[in-house]
């Protein structure tokens, strides 16, 4: 079944890469991306039926206003959204980020890939947490 | 230590860490879009354009390597590290496993004989031997089969710079290779940051690996020494105290 994936990403190049690399995948449907955590909150609140909620949320770590970790802890503390699997991806990760995100309830922490092959593999890994 | 000095040291570490982190984002874009051009538009490109894109991509890969290494190096000063009993045999055999692919590619032969157990930080000591083995596999002339030995030696006080009375407090691990070697007058400068003796492209490296190794060994109150003969091989000695006192460098 097609999974609804919501990307939260402030960088327009990275949003474009998501669309480009995943345009032909039939197993996912990309919801209109949010450019930061606040925008994501607004988007989710406007969804009236729970069945329309995303199946997976992909959060960039470095974002203005609300970064990935902050957005993650908002999601996990909300009764309505806590069950949605969340993954964090970032240009660089270190042990601290991985440990912190896991503690907050992230299903996976990934490094941003640099090519098509890397993106496809990352998405395959992401879909396995759903 | 003077407070101003501590503060300025802290600033420097912050700088190295932030700079390296923030440098990675634009760098990744260069990697992504040059790869993109190569993968998606390859047939539209002229031969020279293909070459230029390859050069952009390989330079950005190299810069990535540099940034990651600088980050590792700057983190070493910051960490207050955990000390435990470390079986060097175990660490070295894990590293040999990690290099499995490169070892079989180069048909290399690695001999490890009974090392020792010391107190230290596992991740950091692992890094030291990783860097030494990586160098030993890397700096070999292409027509030679790499032969690396890692063994224990009773430290010779006059050679390694310890007091004769302290001799039993240290263990010395020697990593020997049959690589391209270097002239002995470089035997201390090779441990400096960004010091590389070979032209770029001939042997890939950031010039940070041995600086990292030295910094780690010094944090462990030990010594690292090198000697070599051009075209015959190098010998790196890691001298470590069996026990770490509570003082942190």
Write up what this structure looks like:
The complex is a heterodimer of chains A (130) and B (249). Chain A is an alpha/beta fold. Chain A is built from five helices and five strands. A five-stranded parallel beta sheet of chain A has the order 2-1-3-4-5, sandwiched between helices. In chain A, helix 3 (68-76) links the parallel strand 3 (56-60) and strand 4 (86-90). The longest helix of chain B has 38 residues, at 3-40.
Topology:
The complex is a heterodimer of chains A (130) and B (249).
Chain A: E1 3-8, H1 12-22, E2 28-30, H2 37-45, E3 56-60, H3 68-76, E4 86-90, H4 95-104, E5 108-111, H5 116-128
Parallel strand pairs in A: 1-2, 1-3, 3-4, 4-5
Chain B: H1 3-40, H2 47-78, E1 84-87, H3 88-98, H4 100-105, E2 109-112, E3 117-120, H5 122-138, E4 147-153, H6 157-160, E5 170-176, H7 209-219, E6 223-229, E7 233-241
Helix pairs in contact in B: 1-2, 2-7, 3-5, 5-7
Order of helices and strands of chain A: EHEHEHEHEH
Strand content of chain B: 15-25%
Unreliable spans of chain B: none
Using the alpha-carbon principal axes, give the shape of chain A: globular
How much helix is in the residues of chain B?
A: 40-55%
Query: What does the largest sheet of chain B look like?
Result: 5 strands, mixed
**Main sheet overview of chain A:** 5 strands, parallel
- Overall pLDDT confidence of chain B: 86
Provide the spatial order of strands within the biggest beta sheet of chain B: 2-4-5-7-6
Rounded to the nearest angstrom, the radius of gyration of chain B is: 20 Å
Mean pLDDT of chain A: 95
**Secondary structure: number of strands of chain B:** 7
Number of helices of chain B: 7
- Succession of helices and strands of chain B: HHEHHEEHEHEHEE
Structural class of chain B: alpha+beta
Which parts of chain A are unreliable, with pLDDT below 50 for 5 consecutive residues or more?
none
